[in-house]
Write a structure and sequence with these properties.
By secondary structure, this protein is mostly helical. It has two domains: 1-49, no CATH class; 63-130. It is 60% helix and 0% strand. The chain is elongated and about 105 Å long. It binds zinc ion.
């Protein structure tokens, strides 16, 4: 039969954990289990960490860059080199990048159009004034 841990918490409450066999304390409070507790915490920390790739900087300036990034990410996830969580974040950021690239492209095309049209417009206004 399991016995209750005899540890008294700082708030004077009795611990509700079950004592480890051969001890008066539960796993969390048994002083002889301290090193095992540390190891378990380390293991938990490692499990919670996501797989990332070594630091590298890829250019994400145009659609071809985004395509290359997607290709690398897909292959890294498929081969188990990259955590799905990281890949999801990359997917999201790539989507943002695509929108910015498209917007920048539209702005550049509009500027080019305006630079052609502006002299035409000025000439038109001149003709109207002269008439
Ligand atoms: Zn306890």
């Amino acid at each position: 039969m399991a016995t209750q841990c005899t540890y008294i918490k700082p708030n004077k409450e009795k611990c509700r954990g079950y004592a480890v066999s051969g001890s008066k304390y539960c796993f969390a409070h048994d002083p002889t289990q301290a090193s095992k507790r540390k190891a378990a915490q380390r293991k938990g920390g490692e499990a919670g960490r996501v797989a990332t790739l070594p630091e590298s900087s890829l250019s994400v300036r145009n659609m071809s860059d985004v395509l290359e990034l997607m290709e690398l990410t897909i292959n890294d996830v498929r081969a188990g080199r990259l955590d799905v969580k990281v890949a999801n974040a990359i997917g999201y950021l790539a989507n943002v990048s695509v929108k910015v690239i498209q917007q920048t492209d539209i702005e550049a095309r509009l500027e080019a159009l305006e630079s052609v049209l502006e002299p035409e417009r000025a000439a038109y206004i001149q003709r109207r004034r002269a008439a």
